[in-house]
Amino acid sequence: MRKILLVAFSIIITGIVQAQEDEEQDTIPNGWQTEGNVQLLFNQSAFNAEWTGGGTSSIAANLTLNYDFNYKKDNFSWNNSILANYGLTKVKADDFPRKTSDRLELNSIAGLEIEESNFFYSYFINFRTQIDKGYRFSQNAENGETIRTETTHFLSPAYLQTGPGIMYKKSEDFIINIAPATARFIFVDNDFTSGPNYIDGQYFGVDAGKSSRFELGASLSALANFELLENVVMDNSLNLYSNYLDKPGNIDIDYLMNLEMGINEYLSANLLFQAIYDDNAVAAFQIREVFGLGINYGF
Fold first, then answer.
1. CA distance 5 to 185
2. Residue 15 in 3-state DSSP?
3. 95: Cβ–Cβ under 8 A, 6 or more apart, which residues?
4. How far apart are the C-alpha atoms of 167 and 223, rounded to whole Å?
5. Where are the domains of the chain?
6. What is the rounded CA–CA span in Å between residue 159 and residue 221?
7. Which CATH number describes the domain made up of 2-298?
8. pLDDT tens across 121-157, in order?
9. Could you give the 3-state DSSP secondary structure of residue 221?
10. Which residue in 273, 165, 278, 258 sits closest to 215, CA to CA?
11. Among 5, 37, 157, 209, which residue has the fewest nearby CB atoms (within 10 Å)?
C-alpha cells in the first residue's frame, strides 16, 4: 500500500511543480465551458491450430466516456464531470465474456475564491457505481462447465460522498480538495445481505438485512493532468477517504491514471492503470491495467 501511495503522491507533486513553473495562469471566461471525449481501446490475439508455441485466441475492448461541463462567474466556479468506463474480454476457451472494467462516476464541486488566491471554500458531491452485473466464476466438478454467480450489479454497490472543504485550484488541470467532514453512504441490494449465514459487514461493510451503510470521515481528492512529452499526456486522479467511525487508519484509496500517446487526431496508444484499496470490499489492493490502440472522438 505504501509503495502505491508513494507513486500516486509523486505524480501529484510532479503536477504541482509543473503547474507552478507555468507563470501564466489560464484565463477562463465567465459562463459555461463543455468538453467531452469518447475512446475505444481494442486488443486482439489469434492463433491457428498449427501454432506450436502455445496460446489462446482472445479479443478485448474497453469503452470510455469523459464529459466535463464547468461554470464560472467571477470568483465562483462549479466543475462537473461524468466518467463512464466499460470493458469486456472474451477468451476462445471460456464459455462467457468477462469484464475488465466497469465504472460510472459523477463529480461536482463548487468553489468560492478566497481573496483573489488559488484557494476556494468548496462543497463537493461524488457518486460512483457500476453499469453491468459482476460475477464470480467457478467450475462444475462433474462436467467442467463454467458457473457464474452474480455478486454485484447496477447500484449495488453505489457510493455517495459529500461535504464542505477547502480547494486549491491552480487551473482546470490541477485541483486538490480537502474535506475534513465528509458524509459517505454505501448502498447495496439487500438480497446480497440476507440469509442465515450472512455475517455483518461481509458485503461492502453493510450489516445483515440492511441496504445501506453510513460513514463520516475525511476525504482528499486530487486531479493532475499534464503533458509529459509532445503528444504524450498523463491524466491522474487520486481519492483518499478515512472513516472516523470505524478503523480510521484504514484509508480507502482510488487512483486512476490514463496515459495517452497521440498518433493523430483520432488514433492514440493508451495505458490505463487503476489501484483501489477498500477493506470493506476486499482486504487487498485491486489492480487493473489496460493497454491498447485507442480510437478517440472529441466533442
1. 24
2. helix
3. 145, 146
4. 11
5. 2-298
6. 15
7. 2.40.230
8. 999 999 999 999 999 999 888 888 899 999 999 999 9
9. strand
10. 278
11. 209
Report residue 170 CA to chain centroid gap. Answer: 22
**Enclosing H/E stretch for 40:** strand 31-45
d(CA 165, CA 120): 9
**Cα(233)–Cα(225) distance, integer angstroms:** 7
Amino acid at site 211: S
The answer for residues whose C-beta is within 8 angstroms of residue 202's C-beta and 6 or more apart is: 193
| Cα gap 174→22, rounded to integer Å | 12
Coil/strand/helix, residue 210: coil
pLDDT one-digit tens code per residue, 64-110: 999 999 999 999 999 999 999 999 999 988 889 999 899 999 999 99
The answer to whether the peptide bond before residue 196 is cis (omega within 30 degrees of 0) is no
**Cα gap 178→217, rounded to integer Å:** 11
Q: Are 89 and 100 in contact, with CB atoms under 8 Å apart? A: yes
Give the cell for residue 15. 503536477
Distance CA 78, CA 58 (A): 43
Q: Which of 119, 180, 192 is nearest to 153 (CA)?
A: 192
How many CB atoms are closer than 10 A to CB 238? 21
* Count of C-beta atoms within a 10 Å radius of residue 6: 10
User: Which of 95, 96, 97, 89 shows the shortest CA–CA distance to 143?
Assistant: 95
- Locate cell 455517495: which residue? 160
